[in-house]
Amino acid sequence: MNLPAVQSPTESEAPASSAAPAGDISWKDLPRVMGSGVAMGTADVVPGVSGGTMAVACGIYMELLGAINSINARALQALARLRLRDALQEIHWRFMLSLGIGIVMAFVVMLRVVGLPRLLQEHPEHVFGVFFGLVLGSVFVLGRRISGWSVQLAGMLALGAALGFGIVNLVPVSTPESPVFVFFCGMIAICAMLLPGISGSFVLLILGKYEYVMGSVERLLRFDLSALAVVVPFALGCLVGIASFSRALTWLLRRWQQPMMALLTGLLVGSLWRIWPFQVVVEQEVRGKVRVISATPQWPASFDGAVLALMVGGLLAVAAVELIAARRQVS
User: Fold this and answer.
1) pLDDT tens digits, residue range 175-203?
2) pTM of this prediction exceeds 0.70
3) d(Cα 26, Cα 24) in Å, to the nearest integer?
4) C-alpha to C-alpha distance for 298 and 277, rounded to whole angstroms
């Protein structure tokens, strides 16, 4: 499955209304986009399921990139001058509003009802089994997008694997909880989310901040305002990441799509060991908090059948999403 081309609104396209720019959705499209937001939000919470792939599967990937790119210099200037109406004439605000509502609904269900961060603490092997299957499935998804293998593409795959392995070894198991580092995590995670096949939550997992960030979001959904100390810098990092990298990512995918896919596939392969469900974990209490000092993957003497089943289930889930996305592109 190839990535869909990014389309930008043209001057000849007329706005749907005086308050909506060319290229934005009409009000009747809100349920469709909101439902897509629910699917994307669910994917964004689960490491290994790409929000970008889910956007392709729902048929809104081009609209998503178009909406992000609609936040241009004119829109920012209008916002800086508090000219809200002029800003809304540039930004695809209907699309963003309906998508955002759907994403928030998914976060409420996954974090409050399902309680994913709590499950990760209480049943780490089983949850990581699902995550491992999901990421392994993403490796095959990205690998299928590479056509006409060559020495150059094989080299990019090897480079990506080396980088991925190096990154997960360089990043300590316990990373800082400072607002600056959380801001950085937001920047990197949102860029990963925009790429079909790469999971923003998986990036948080590699950086050691998945439970910390998702747990803070879950607390905020319970109206615990102390969580804003984490959620605000993370959200600001996401905004800066979108503003800084979305156009660069679009340009790279247009110009060097195959080498980029090979590099990203390698990154996932090299990072897989970090979420291998069977690990020897060493913990230590520091200032009243339990810190993970080290986590070493191991080959277990006997496999837990439930964990293996969850790994296979995760892989099949990604395969199903990819199949739906491929059929949507063909149609």
Assistant:
1) 788 999 999 999 988 887 877 667 788 88
2) no
3) 7
4) 9
